[in-house]
Amino acid sequence: MTVLHFLETISPFAHKKGWIHWESGLSRTLTCPACHTTQSMKTKRSVASPYSTHRRYRLYDCTFCGTAHFPDVSAPVYEHRPPSEDEEKYTAPKKFYVEQGAGFESMIAPFFWARSPSIKTLLEVGCGYGFSLDFAGRALGWKALGIDPSHIARHGAQELGLPIMDGYLGADTELENMPFDLVFSSEVIEHIADPDPFVSVLARAAGTKGTLLLTTPDIAGLRQERAVEEIIPLLSPGSHLVLYSEDGLRACLQRAGFTNIEVTSTGETIYAFAANDALYVDFTAPIDRQILSRYMQDRLSAKEMPAHLRTGFAGRLLRLQTDNGDYQAALKTLEILQQHWKTHFGLDLHAPDTIENVAHTNQDFDEYAAAHPFNLVIVLYCAGILALNETQDQDLALAFFKACKRCYAVMEPVLTAINASDLDSRNLAHEAALLCAGVLTQSNPAKAISAFESLDPFLIQAYADRYEKTRLEVFAAAANSGDYASAERLRPAVEAVLQKGPCQDDFEHAAAMGLAMMALNYRFDRPDGLFWLQKALNNAPDGPQWESMRKVWQTQAAAYGTELLVHGGQPAFTRKRQEIRAALQSASLTPKDFAIAEALGLAYMDDQPHIALAWLERALPLASEDHQAVTTARIADTHTHIFLQAVNAGNMDEAAKTCSAATGMANVNDDPGLHFALGLDALNRRCDLAEAAKRFALVADQHDDPALSVQGAFHLAMVQARNGNIPKAQQTADTLYSAANPNAALVIQLVGKRQAELDAAIAATA
Ligand SMILES: [Zn+2]
Fold this sequence. Notes:
By secondary structure, the chain is an alpha/beta fold.
């Protein structure tokens, strides 16, 4: 009702810009029509009047219940105009409503929430054309009666064959079957300045046993960040008088005396159920799609039917079947439309390329309506989905999606000119544009990229996720098929997305692979190639394709390592050790990889000797005879290194593992540091005092490192004391602390304070 009335009353008057002003303005003392609180209300927005370019309507907000109202707009007259006035003026808006504009599913959804076996009779107040009335009667088997004073209701009564009374429901109107099990009034209460008389009339029709069901636009939908075309239907200036909040609508129902009230909102529309008897409402109950589908098919089976009605039912059924994946049935419905539209519009759905392929010059609404079905965009979208998923004809799917885009481009300015819009068509046209790019990736990656680049900027906001996925998809298709020049155009954006973290899905893995291929084969940047290969292969799905990519990664890493060694030596190699190591971690190495494995061993020697050891051990079997001795020595060296670290850190387990290698090394190279570590290990872990004494004596006797010599002598004396060898301990201590000791200064500095400790140890043993 809202859309239709709006289309009738609005003449092409205003551009979107300046249509709504969001600044706060005047205050006025007003009484809220919903909760009856009187207060000083502020206006936060004003809307252009559809009747005069100079007038603006101010919307005032109730701070108590959140309802807003237009105090300066008076209710329009809904009674039917004399047909002589010019009935034709309403043909195009009615056609739009019947074919596409009526939100069929949102109208009938509450019937399923309230559907209990006790409902047998329905009164719909303000039923408009009567779609919901028709569904209740035909599909649900209710005895359904409508009442509405508008001319559109007379059309509905005639075209759908419905019992609709012409007029308003009054306080003393007597109707057959009154009271009704369900009294329904959808999108009416917002057109009335004072809701109380209206609600009490509805309450009377429901009686003490019946249920009242109201729907109305939700003020919560009026948000500044939304597009103007999304809030036009909500505001409908000059037609809507009160925009309710859930609390406001509840207050109205409470004043009418209802004891049981259930209210919910989709954010766009408030639904309220009210009864005096027990109320059974399940807001989560879905529409029964079988019932809906049977209803549409039943309607379509009629031989005689106005053309716009057949278009509307067939289009809605096609959408339903397509969404449900019932493709065989959907193809039959498409065939009904094909025959119907060929006759009425000369449109050939078998040849989508021929549809809307001539540039149009500013058609007005009536001209457009005469030449087009209003659900053309929706039908072409569904046909594309069927071609893609059922017929599996990608060329045909592409032709449908392209036609869908073209048709929306023609329809949009026609609707915009009368300040209307069709969000459903808009969304599917954008979806089709994304699918175009997606479908093209299979056959022509370059064209897919062009299609992606020509997408409406609107998509970037409204479909951010899908948009990004499509970008990755078309990029990967081009890059991985070798069309690097096309892919290059999207590369910076794709890199920015993938740099954020590990790949999350197949799209991202494929795009990372594309970036790697471009780096290696097009930009000749091997380090970058390795970076993207690593990203692509990390957590990559299983499959032979990824296995072969892993080989590429390993080969490239080995080549890169060799380059670095040749040009920059070990230091250059060490700087890039992580990239190369990641690639070769699980590679099966061959003798030609010996240099890389060895270089990795050396690169980690100082700071991560365990990693160094693993690589040297992988290198050893690859080594030529000349290299074997050196590599073996490096392995022993690394063990020693690990042993030294372990002893210093007090890591007993690690020391145990590497002790024998370190002992072997100490016997070969006579390193005092290693002897000292072996002494500490023998003392603390192995409890081998003889071995400890031997190692500390070697350290004490050397002259290369005086500080270590002092430490060796001190530890030797301690071990001797603990062994009970008092004279020896005393002798070692005397030598250490003698004034003649050439290292006397170092002794004081390093162990001087521990002399008392040593004395005590000797005394205790004695
Ligand atoms: Zn209020």
